[in-house]
Specification:
about 525 residues; alpha+beta; about 25% helix; plasmid; GMC_OxRdtase; GMC family oxidoreductase; GMC_OxRtase_C; FAD
Length: about 525
């Protein structure tokens, strides 16, 4: 690794390599805490626990290193989709999408999704966090509480704003630098339609009905600064932190109703590693319910079907799957305009109906064509841009189920997108607004024509079913709450199981308004705060 990579000098990076080599050559049979998954939430938790020198932490990741140009170069993020850094899940064929089976990419490697995503930092709306507080019965999940954590963890590089932004935290957040002229055009076009413009999408804009702004991004010195880079890499030279990559967690080990450790597969060998204090699952909204079920925690009928002994009947495990669904509209450039940075520098949230108090539409501008496999048949321009426009608060719910009791088998993923007819209605409003913006005079100097859906094309249900793709914002499959279908309580402890917590997007009672990376960082911070308090760290 060279010195330009975020995370330290060559000397520091050498110390990290030497330290982790030593840790792995002396892998211990037990650690105080085992954190499964080095994605957005798991990276935060591992860092916060390892800050206490007396606490031994094992961070387990199924994928490998993030030291790759495809990860660190912001412009190359699309090349990670379908690569070895992607779990490569596929949804079940969806009758509401004419039988289409969508690819469901999910980050596999240090940083998880934060190492392969588009680097957008989106905090979620006030209404999201206040809903979480209501569902959990804990004001620690409220918007005001989350805002305080955001201020603490951010190292904001834009105009100072002490009410909304922090300046000394580990997460380097910057506004889009030297935005593309089409990002400028988006802001102008939205403004001409009466959509207010804000200096940032992460301040007052997310307390209102919505607006438009340049995106906030996790890019530092022209390089991706994932949450692994922000949180874990700076402390990876500590002797109390062991980072175990290329290691699959097969199940949580239980002694009755108490988690005692994990069973893992590494280099073809199956090992058991014990946890003296707690096990934390941060493996994402697809793998976390799978792991719980493989461990005997889930719906009794599902576990019986696969011959897995029941440890705790929790029928909500795997249910409630949500994801933002997008319907891309594409325009052809008059002259090619190269994408800037990550190729996504402007974002917009708005309402499909004026009576709504919070936005239910999510728009991310993508500075290159992004068709679905079906809409591509309408003709994809060699050079163009896409409005990646979707539902910020979908009504449809899906689920994750076991395919078999084999830990190596991918689970069945059924997002069930557009199953609720209200989502189709909102999608029509979404695409209408998308076309109003994209065909606005502000784009005239740059755009030659609407390519998808195409000039004069109808916005019918067939187009919506053909165009629908995922935002890769899966969540809700081990949700926090107090009802019979909740999986964890407000402290993220699994109902009825001691010393086992879940901390990732699966615990969110509903998908947040916007990209889910930043909310997952808050989940990690809350989990770490709870663990530190519970164990006196």
């Amino acid at each position: 690794m060279n010195q330009s990579v975020p995370g330290g000098s060559e000397e520091f990076n050498r110390r990290v390599r030497d330290n982790q080599t030593q840790r792995l050559s002396n892998l211990k049979p037990a650690y105080d805490f085992i954190v499964c998954g080095a994605g957005a939430s798991g990276s935060v938790i591992a860092r916060r626990l390892a800050e206490n020198a007396d606490c031994s932490v094992l961070l387990i990741e199924a994928g490998g290193s993030d030291e790759d140009e495809a990860v660190l170069n912001p412009a190359l993020w699309p090349t990670n989709l379908g690569s070895r850094r992607d779990w490569g899940f596929h949804a079940e064929p969806n009758p509401h999408l004419d039988g289409r089976a969508l690819p469901m990419s999910m980050g596999k490697g240090l940083g998880g999704g934060s190492s392969i995503n588009v680097m957008v930092w989106a905090r979620g709306h006030r209404a999201d966090w206040d809903y979480f507080a209501e569902q959990s019965g804990d004001a620690g999940w409220s918007y005001e509480a989350a805002l305080g954590i955001y201020r603490r963890i951010e190292n904001w590089q834009g105009a100072p704003d002490p009410h909304y932004r922090g300046s000394s935290g580990p997460v380097w957040v910057q506004p889009a630098q030297n935005p593309s002229p089409i990002a400028d055009a988006l802001l102008s076009a939205a403004g001409s339609l009466g959509i207010p413009r804000y200096d940032s999408p992460n301040g007052r804009m997310m307390e209102t009905a919505g607006g438009v702004a340049y995106a906030d991004m996790l890019v530092r010195d022209g390089r991706r600064n994932s949450l692994y880079r922000a949180y874990v890499h700076p402390v990876a030279d500590r002797p109390n932190l062991t980072i175990l990559t290329d290691t699959l967690v097969r199940r949580v080990l239980l002694d009755g109703a108490t988690a005692t450790g994990v069973e893992v597969e590494r280099g073809g060998e199956i090992l058991s590693i014990m946890a003296g204090s707690e096990v934390v699952l941060s493996t994402g909204a697809i793998n976390t319910p799978k792991l719980l079920m493989l461990s005997g925690i889930g719906d009794r009928s599902q576990l019986d079907r696969h011959g897995i002994p029941l440890a705790r009947h929790l029928p909500g495990v795997g249910r409630g799957l949500q994801d933002h669904v997008s319907f891309g509209c594409t325009w052809e450039y008059r002259q090619p305009i190269a994408p800037h940075t990550s190729g996504s520098e402007a974002t917009l949230y708005w309402k499909s109906r004026p009576e709504l108090e919070a936005p239910d539409l999510l728009f991310c501008q993508v500075e290159f064509p992004v068709p679905s496999e079906r809409t591509a048949a309408r003709g994809v321009p060699d050079h163009g841009w896409t409005m990646f426009a979707g539902l910020a608060q979908p009504y449809s719910r899906g689920e994750v189920r076991l395919r078999s009791a084999d830990p190596a088998a991918a689970p069945l993923v059924d997002p069930n997108m557009l199953s609720d007819p209200r989502d189709l209605e909102t999608a029509r409003a979404c695409v209408r607004l998308c076309r109003e913006i994209g065909n606005n005079a502000a784009f005239a100097p740059h755009v030659q024509r609407e390519a998808i859906p195409g000039v004069g094309a109808a916005i019918d249900d067939q187009f919506l079913r053909d165009a629908a793709v995922t935002y890769w914002h899966q969540c809700g499959t081990a949700r926090m709450g107090m009802d019979d279908l909740s999986v964890v309580d407000a402290s993220l402890a699994v109902h009825g199981i001691d010393r086992l917590r879940v901390a990732d997007g699966s615990i969110l009672p509903r998908v947040t308004t916007g990209n889910t990376q930043a909310p997952c960082a808050i989940v990690g911070e809350r989990a770490a705060e709870i663990l530190r308090r519970r164990h006196g760290l």
